[in-house]
Amino acid sequence: MPQTKNRAVMIWLSTFAFIVAFLVVFGGFVRLTRSGLSIVEWNPVSGTFPPIGEEAWLDEFSKYQLTPEFQKVNKEMTLESYQRIFYVEWTHRLLARLAGFFYAIPVFFFLLKGYIPRKEFGMYFLMGILFIGQAG
User: What is the pLDDT of residues 36-72, one digit of tens each?
Assistant: First the structure.
């Protein structure tokens, strides 16, 4: 257990725990709506933005149409329906990216300021690794 008693660190940890819990619940919603397979390529940087324009949407939809999810479950899906499930998954990924920043920036700031003792950093590092691991 962390030994730090710093109020800012404790608020950050509590807030981060809430964010992770929210992401897990939202991830369940993504799975229940079968939206999670709508984005067929993982582009950490360019994937931050959804497709812009009709041509970009048609390109994304054509990639999705090649997947077993489309061919076996969603054969009748229209571009409009695809956009709905795409935005559900895109929102989930965007929130996860933001949560990653909400973890990384404060943990290193608190470490540099000495609010987190260096000898305890391994525990905080493990917390970050577990956060990344739950995404898979």
Answer: 888 888 777 777 899 999 999 999 999 999 999 899 8
Q: What's the length of the chain? A: 136
Helices and strands counted in the chain (H then E)? 5, 0
CA distances from 28 to 11, 21, 112, 128 (A): 26, 11, 36, 21
Q: How many CB atoms are closer than 10 A to CB 55? A: 9
Taking a C-beta distance cutoff of 8 angstroms, is the pair 131, 20 a contact? yes
Whether the Cβ atoms of residue 107 and residue 116 lie closer than 8 Å to each other: yes
Secondary structure (DSSP) of 82-130: HHHHHHHHHHHHHHHHHHHHHHHHHHHHHHHHTSS-GGGHHHHHHHHHH
